[in-house]
Design the sequence.
C-alpha cells in the first residue's frame, strides 16, 4: 500500500500548501498551451476585480518560457521540468524548476542577482534598453526575467541545487501580492 | 494592396489590416511559439504599405490611419515585435503621414496600461488609451 499512502501524503502536502497547480513533465509549446488554458480558467474563476489573475497569468507564461530557454537538453531525463502555482491569503507564488548545465549556472546567476537588486525605475530603464537592443536569444530571455521582476515588484528568488558533476536543478520563484 | 487578415489562434493574435477603412487592428493573445515566424510577414506587409501611403500622398489623399492594439496578453518576445511595428509607424509619421494609435486595455489590467505608456514613451508617440 506504499503508493496509496504516498499519494495521500502528496494530497495532504498540496492542500496544506494551497497548491493550485503542480505539474512535472516535458514542457513543449503544446503542453504549455493546454496547461495555460487550464490555469486561465482557474484564475478567471477567482473573479478578481484587481486584475491579479492577469498578473499571475503573465508571470506564469514568462516563467514557463524561461524553462525552455535555460533547460539543459543532454538527455531525456533532463527535459523534465516543474511548475507550481500556490495561493495564500497574502500572495500567489509561481515556482518553476528545471535542469541546467553547471557551465551555464554562473552567467544566469549573475544575471538574476543583478536584476533582483534593481529598483522599479532601474528595471524600467533596463527593460527599455533590452527592448531596443538587437534581437538575440540571450537578450529576449533577459527581457522575460525583467518583465517578471517589474510585474511582481521584484519579488523574485532563485536557487541552484547541484545534482551531478554536469548539471544542477534551477529553481525560480516569484511572489505576487494580493491587494486587499 | 489587399487587406491583411490573419485569424487568431490560442497563442497568436488576430490581425485585421483593412486598407479600405484604414483600421489596422491587432487583437487577442500573443505568445506564438515562434514570434519571428508570426510577425515577419506582418511587418513586411506594413513596410510594403509605405508605397501605398506615398501614392496616396501624391493624390492629396490624407486619410488618417488608425492602428489599434487590443491585446489580452503579450509575452516579452512579442513585445520586441510590437516595438518594431511602432518604430516603422514612427517613421511614417516623420514622413508626414497621419497615424492615430489606439491602445485598448482591460480596466482591471494596470500592467497593460503601463505597457502602453511604456511603448508610447519609448517610441515618442502619443497613444489614445481606451479601457474596456
Sequence:
Amino acid at each position: 500500500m506504499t503508493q496509496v499512502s504516498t499519494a495521500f501524503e502528496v494530497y495532504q502536502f498540496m492542500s496544506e500548501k494551497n497548491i493550485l497547480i503542480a505539474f512535472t513533465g516535458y514542457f513543449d509549446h503544446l503542453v504549455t498551451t493546454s496547461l495555460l488554458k487550464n490555469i486561465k480558467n482557474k484564475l478567471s474563476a477567482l473573479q478578481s476585480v484587481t486584475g491579479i489573475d492577469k498578473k499571475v497569468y503573465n508571470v506564469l507564461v514568462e516563467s514557463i518560457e524561461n524553462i525552455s530557454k535555460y533547460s539543459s537538453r543532454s538527455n531525456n531525463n533532463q527535459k523534465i521540468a516543474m511548475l507550481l502555482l500556490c495561493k495564500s491569503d497574502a500572495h500567489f507564488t509561481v515556482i518553476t524548476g528545471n535542469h541546467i548545465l553547471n557551465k551555464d549556472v554562473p552567467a544566469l546567476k549573475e544575471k538574476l542577482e543583478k536584476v533582483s537588486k534593481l529598483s522599479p525605475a532601474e528595471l524600467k530603464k533596463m527593460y527599455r534598453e533590452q527592448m531596443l537592443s538587437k534581437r538575440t536569444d540571450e537578450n529576449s530571455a533577459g527581457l522575460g526575467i525583467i518583465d517578471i521582476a517589474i510585474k511582481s515588484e521584484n519579488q523574485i528568488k532563485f536557487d541552484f541545487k547541484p545534482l551531478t558533476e554536469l548539471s544542477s536543478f534551477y529553481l525560480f520563484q516569484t511572489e505576487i501580492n494580493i491587494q486587499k | 494592396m489587399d487587406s491583411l487578415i490573419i485569424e487568431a489562434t490560442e497563442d497568436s493574435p488576430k490581425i485585421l489590416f483593412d486598407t479600405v477603412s484604414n483600421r489596422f487592428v491587432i487583437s487577442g493573445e500573443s505568445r506564438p511559439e515562434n514570434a519571428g515566424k508570426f510577425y515577419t510577414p506582418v511587418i513586411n506587409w506594413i513596410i510594403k504599405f509605405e508605397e501605398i501611403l506615398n501614392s496616396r500622398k501624391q493624390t492629396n489623399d490624407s486619410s488618417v490611419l488608425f492602428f489599434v492594439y487590443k491585446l489580452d496578453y503579450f509575452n516579452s518576445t512579442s513585445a520586441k515585435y510590437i516595438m518594431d511595428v511602432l518604430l516603422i509607424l514612427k517613421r511614417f509619421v516623420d514622413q508626414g503621414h497621419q497615424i492615430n494609435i489606439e491602445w485598448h486595455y482591460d480596466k482591471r489590467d494596470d500592467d497593460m496600461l503601463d505597457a502602453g505608456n511604456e511603448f508610447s514613451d519609448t517610441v515618442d508617440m502619443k497613444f489614445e488609451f481606451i479601457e474596456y
